[in-house]
Amino acid sequence: MEETKVTLNENERAAAEAVFGERLPLAERYVQHLATTGIERGLIGPREVPRLWARHVLNCAVVQEYIAPNVSVADVGSGAGLPGLCLAIARPDLKLTLIEPLERRVIWLNEVVDDLGLENVTVMRSRAEQAVGAVDADVVTARAVSALVGLLDITLPILRGTGELLALKGRSAAEEITKAKKKLNRYGARETEILTAGADLLEEPTTVVRVRL
Question: What does the UniProt entry say about where the protein is found (predicted)?
Answer without folding.
Answer: Cytoplasm
